[in-house]
Amino acid sequence: MREDFLHYLWKYKKFDFTNAKTTQGEKILLIDSGTHNFNSGPDFFNARLKIGDQLWAGNVELHIKASDWYFHQHEKDTNYDNVILHVVWEDDVDVQRHNKTSIPALSLKSLVDQDLLLGYRQLFASPENWINCEKNFKEVDDFTLRHWQERLYLKRLEEKSILILDLLGKSGNNWEAVLFQMLAKNFGLNLNGDAFLSMAQSLDFSVVQKSSQNNLQLEALFFGQAGLLSKQINIPYYKKLQQEYAYLKHKYKLSNSGVIPPKYFRLRPDNFPNIRLSQLASLYFKQKNLFSELIASKSLEPIYKILDVETSEFWRQHYSFPKKHREREKRLSPAFKDLVLINTIIPLRFCYSQSRGNDEIEILLELIEKIPAENNKIVQNFNKIKNGSTQNALHSQAMINLKKNYCEANKCLDCAIGVKLLQRKT
């Protein structure tokens, strides 16, 4: 038995509330179960009850055992003085508020349908499963799944907003600087995302703007700040980068002392830091009004066109400075462009529109729904469990959120799918 099951029972009135009585035998009339509180303090705020002949308005606290009240030391906390009912599974002790007054208790143990209780226990009966509801997930109807996926995606957008708003504050509300920092992080992917972000944060965005007329200068700036120009390599291109960086470093008093060194280990050559930084430099050399163009785009096509960049000429024949290979174009792939949209452009537009008081959510939902679903283990496994459950990037982002923040945390009773499966038992 977990406490979140009691929260579910109380919140959705999944018990025989018509026969609810306090452990002292007084009739309880449940008028309003209150607002579920997910932060510190009582579990439900502003509930309305009638106990005996007395109407009550206040908070409700839930525990598996009544003695948990003392285990959590609520009797010493004045925040619990407004608790009007203690809802428990097992009433093993009388409890009192901080002011020594007793709190009525309701035990749910004899009021819960046995089929519902069995369904709850079965939900957590197979810890070896990839997710708790693995056997029954495919039974959830498409309406419930799609509605929950949209909500999960919006929650994921809000999570991504935390970093964006933090960067915005540090940059003095410079949205163009934040775009650059987020793009840098995205270009670094999982392995080098933090390294590239630290590089982007190590210089003022005005330096990028002033260097954007010269692609070699931009590459020198990014490579130098990332610590990729510290060796002695007898190649003309490398020496030019070193000379340009030395000039920029002196002119703008640059320092890269706090920059995280990028890694190459287990990376595909197309994702090498020098390749991605060259592509990032090409983007800022090619696009002079990058932020305004990305914000104004109402469809995917112009954004894809903006992101249609490749490395500089040297990297057509190199993956590293010393070694030459047969010439090949190294453009941003369609899949990489989609990642930039998913992880940078759409979250940034979400934050920007909110800051301006504009409701752009429908446009953003249309954009994300047109992007193909990501291909990762989470998406693959959900599609195995329920064929077609993840069809576009909104769905894949939602399922990443679902797996990491609900399934892995066993928050089945905060999940629309878990609740739907339990409702079949009642």
From TrEMBL:
Q: What is this protein called?
A: DUF2851 domain-containing protein
- In its UniProt entry, the species of origin is given as Salegentibacter agarivorans
Q: Which InterPro entries match?
A: DUF2851
